[in-house]
Design brief:
59% helix; Rossmann fold; single chain; elongated; alpha/beta
Length: 147
C-alpha cells in the first residue's frame, strides 16, 4: 500500500513538472512573438544628454525587469545630434537592444516623432522631452503606469 502511494505521488509530481515546463515554453514563445503588439514604445526627445542617458536607459530596463515585462522600444531623438550621446547609446545597444538612437535637430524633432508614431504599430506610446532629472523621474512614473 505504501509503495503504491509513493508511486502515484511520483507520477503526479512528474506530470505536474511536465505540464509546468510545457506551459512556460508556450508562454515564453508566444510572448516573444507578440511583444511588438502589446509592449509600449517610448519616444524621448533629448538635447545634450551624455551626462545622464546611460543611467536613464539602465533605469528603464530595470523597471521593466522588476515588473517582469519587456521594456518595449525606446527611441532617443537627440536634437543636438551629439556624438557623445550616440557613442553611449551605441555602447549600450548590445546589452539593451530595445534602444534606438535618432540624430535630429530642433527643426526636425517634431517630424521625426510623427514619423516614428506613424511607423510604430503599437496601441500605446509615451512621448516626452527631457532636460533634467525632474523630467526623468516624471517619465519613469508614467512609464511604470503604462507597463
Amino acid at each position: 500500500m505504501y509503495v503504491l502511494f509513493t508511486d502515484i505521488l511520483v507520477v503526479l509530481l512528474a506530470g505536474y513538472g511536465l505540464v509546468m515546463i510545457v506551459y512556460q515554453m508556450v508562454s515564453h514563445f508566444s510572448k516573444n512573438n507578440a511583444v511588438h503588439h502589446w509592449s509600449p514604445a517610448a519616444i524621448v526627445i533629448v538635447e545634450e544628454a551624455e551626462g545622464w542617458i546611460e543611467w536613464f536607459v539602465r533605469k528603464l530596463s530595470l523597471h521593466g525587469f522588476m515588473q517582469g515585462k519587456d521594456a518595449g522600444d525606446l527611441f532617443i531623438i537627440d536634437t543636438s545630434a551629439s556624438s557623445e550621446t550616440y557613442q553611449i547609446v551605441s555602447r549600450l545597444q548590445p546589452t539593451h537592444p530595445f534602444v534606438t538612437y535618432v540624430a535630429s535637430s530642433d527643426a526636425r524633432g517634431v517630424s521625426d516623432v510623427l514619423a516614428l508614431l506613424n511607423s510604430n504599430r503599437r496601441s500605446q506610446a509615451l512621448v516626452a522631452a527631457m532636460k533634467d532629472e525632474r523630467d526623468i523621474h516624471q517619465f519613469l512614473k508614467a512609464w511604470e503606469q503604462l507597463l
